[in-house]
Design goal:
The protein is about 60% helix and about 0% strand. Helix 5 packs across helix 6 and helix 7 packs across helix 15. The longest helix has 24 residues. It is built from 16 helices and no strands. The protein has a single domain, classed as Ammonium transporter fold (Orthogonal Bundle). The protein is mainly α.
Length: about 325
């Protein structure tokens, strides 16, 4: 009996020593302190310079857009989660991150209903309908923005008839990319870098995006491979265009600092759910986004391209994960 008891005890000890490995949906984490909530809080902190600059440039218009998106996103998540009979909690801060990014991706003069509809689509269709946090295939904020961009193309222009009565100089101007695409007018690099231009709320200041992006990469909340791949391809393709002399007044640095390229590189493309999980895959993902951005800017009538490029690469993320599976040690 004693031997049998000893054998059972040994078997139980051996069972306890075997690690239990569970594979769930992304984001995959190895450090138990590196939670989804901590990642979302890091993103909100990183967005502070961008939000502060947007408020400095666009004043109450920026506050209004972000407040509308925040309220609409939180309410939408509560309603949709309740409809699925799931427990509702705001402690993960994911809805707040989607709301702030969405608000910063809208122009200052967009009517209130645009932010509300974009928020409903972003949370309801872009996130909850896939299963909630960690299950979405596409970046929720870009799903919402793409919908209103197509549905309300007229009011989504960064400068419209309403902006002529605001008294704020920035929103009475054409965006830098539109000004160059349509009229051949080049914006100074100083204005692009500091953000004294028109555009969506979060895209105007390259400096603010770089500060926030650096914080995310240092905290390892964002994978540096994605913005590195994106920026590298933009520099290569823009540099080749400079050498060919296609647009001497619009250099590769103009491409880098204009539009939502840096905002998208650090805050949108780096979404851990809709981006690849391997280091090689992340670089390929970022490079693909950079490639499509430049193709759209060079050859399409649409002057921007970041939103569509991100959504296109989100769609091929599962394939990139399959193509970049690491080799087993010893093979």
């Amino acid at each position: 009996m004693s031997e049998t008891t000893s054998e059972k005890q040994s078997a139980n000890d051996a069972t306890r020593d075997v690690p239990v490995i569970q594979v769930g949906h992304s984001p995959h984490i190895a450090n138990v302190s590196f939670t989804s909530r901590r990642m979302m809080i890091d993103v909100l902190i990183a967005l502070l310079p961008v939000a502060a600059m947007s408020i400095y440039i666009f004043q109450l218009y920026a506050v209004k857009q972000m407040a509308i998106c925040l309220a609409a996103c939180l309410l939408t998540e509560a309603v949709f989660v309740k409809m699925r009979n799931h427990s509702f909690s705001l402690t993960d801060c994911s809805a707040a991150v989607t709301a702030v990014i969405l608000g910063l991706s809208l122009p200052a003069t967009a009517p209130w209903y645009v932010g509300v509809i974009a928020s409903v689509v972003a949370i309801g269709i872009g996130k909850v309908i896939f299963g909630g946090i960690g299950m979405n295939l596409f970046n929720p904020a870009m799903v919402g923005r793409a919908f209103v961009m197509i549905a309300f193309a007229g009011v989504m222009a960064a400068s419209g008839y309403e902006s002529m009565h605001t008294g704020i100089d920035a929103i009475t101007q054409a965006t830098p990319l539109n000004a160059f695409k349509q009229m051949g007018i080049s914006t100074s690099l100083k204005d692009l870098f500091f953000g004294f231009t028109n555009g969506s709320l979060g895209e105007t200041s390259a400096l603010a995006c770089l500060i926030g992006g650096a914080y995310l990469c240092i905290r390892r909340t964002a994978s540096w491979e994605i913005p590195a791949g994106l920026i590298a391809v933009v520099l290569i393709m823009g540099g080749l265009a400079d050498i060919m002399g296609n647009a001497s007044d619009w250099t590769v640095i103009h491409h880098l600092f204009s539009g939502s390229l840096l905002f998208g590189a650090f805050f949108i493309a780096t979404d851990p759910v809709s981006s690849p999980i391997t280091a090689k895959g992340k670089f390929i993902f970022g490079a693909g986004i950079g490639f499509f951005i430049m193709i759209l800017r060079f050859f399409s009538g649409y002057p921007e391209g970041v939103m569509f490029a991100v959504l296109l690469m989100n769609a091929v993320t599962p394939l990139i994960n399959r193509w970049t599976i690491p080799k087993v040690m010893g093979e």
